[in-house]
Design a protein that fits this description.
binds flavin-adenine dinucleotide, 8 strands, 14% strand, 8-stranded parallel β-barrel, alpha/beta
């Protein structure tokens, strides 16, 4: 099913993100996590994309399992910075042939100069990928937005103009980078709407379960820590069990506030941890009509 039709059909949607294995020997572990997550009956599940042969193939493979084995709508992420146009067309063909109808079109991050990954320079920005997907076939296309600004941005106004340009290329829905300060998101949503962008916005919610991984993600996303999140990290950061419980409660309260303020597209960055997603699902069930 097209995700934009799912979003339009109900006031609150609940969806889950998984990431594919980097190596094939981890495939079964990820497949088991995907299976456990699919039991929560999410409205759809997204699969992240890592540039480079094995990882990108596993995105298509996991997305196909989500559709064909778990009978759940899949959203395949696709990045362009590290790919040639020909490689992108190859992946689009694989997705189409496997019945995947939804793609999240992303630029991808600049590979580290020492990583050995080439940058072919066929693409510079995500809007070029949106154009190519539209030219290729009939996909429902999502794109990223960054409520606290993209780390590369020079000027917040330009960031919104670039977002508008990307949406005008044919984006059906947006998914946000994670954030902890809902107030900053409400302000951003007002600015996006004021710029004439009326595309549905799905909110990516990150349950914090590990200080180490949070530090890594903050460094690349530009997300800021709130005083409340800092307090939780200071108090529970050295106690993984308690940190996970605090992270679930924080994410659940964030979602309660978002839905109460009329933002009903809730997407959980699960980090492939079904028990965390399930605990959040339990807390917010009443918002989903349970
Ligand atoms: C929901 C979500 C999912 C993600 N999933 C993945 C994933 O699966 N795999 C992965 O590798 N990464 C993923 N990322 C990370 C993403 O690839 C990075 O954040 C990347 O740096 C930017 O991607 P984008 O699609 O927002 O880029 P763009 O929309 O291209 O924007 C990037 C920057 O370029 C600027 N810009 C855009 N157009 C122009 C222009 N014409 N001139 C000048 N500047 C311009 C924008 O203002 C912005 O500052 C995800 C991010 C999000 C929010």
């Amino acid at each position: 099913m097209r995700i934009v039709d799912i979003i339009r059909s109900k006031p609150v949607t609940f969806s889950l993100e998984v990431f594919p294995p980097k190596t094939d020997d981890r495939y079964d572990t990820v497949a088991q996590a995907v299976s456990a997550l699919s039991f929560m009956a999410p409205d759809y599940m997204s699969v992240t994309y890592g540039a480079g042969g094995g990882t990108s193939k596993n995105t298509v493979r996991i997305a196909t399992e989500i559709e064909k084995i778990h009978h759940t709508t899949a959203l395949a992420h696709l990045t362009c910075l590290s790919s040639t146009r020909e490689e992108v067309r190859g992946i689009l063909g694989d997705l189409r042939d496997n019945g995947i109808r939804n793609i999240l079109a992303l630029r991808g991050d600049q590979p580290h100069p020492d990583s050995g990954f080439p940058v072919p320079h066929d693409y510079r920005y995500a809007y070029e990928l949106v154009n190519d997907i539209r030219a290729f076939g009939d996909f429902c296309v999502g794109a990223a937005c960054h409520p606290e600004g993209h780390p590369d941005r020079v000027d917040p106004k330009a960031d919104i103009e670039h977002l508008r340009n990307k949406v005008e290329c044919g984006v059906d829905f947006l998914v946000t980078q994670f954030f902890f300060d809902n107030g900053k998101f409400y302000d951003y949503a007002d600015r996006v709407r004021a710029a004439g962008v009326n595309t549905p916005i799905i909110i990516g919610v990150m349950p914090v379960t590990s200080v180490k991984s949070l530090r890594r993600m903050i460094a690349i996303s530009g997300t800021s820590l709130t005083p409340r999140m800092k307090t939780l990290l200071d108090r529970w950061g050295d106690d993984p069990d308690s940190m996970a419980k605090a992270g679930v409660l924080h994410a659940s309260e964030q979602i309660l506030d978002l839905v109460s303020n009329g933002f009903g597209g809730i997407h959980i960055y699960t980090m492939n941890k079904p028990q965390i997603a399930s605990a959040i699902r339990g807390n917010i069930g009443f918002l989903l009509g349970d």
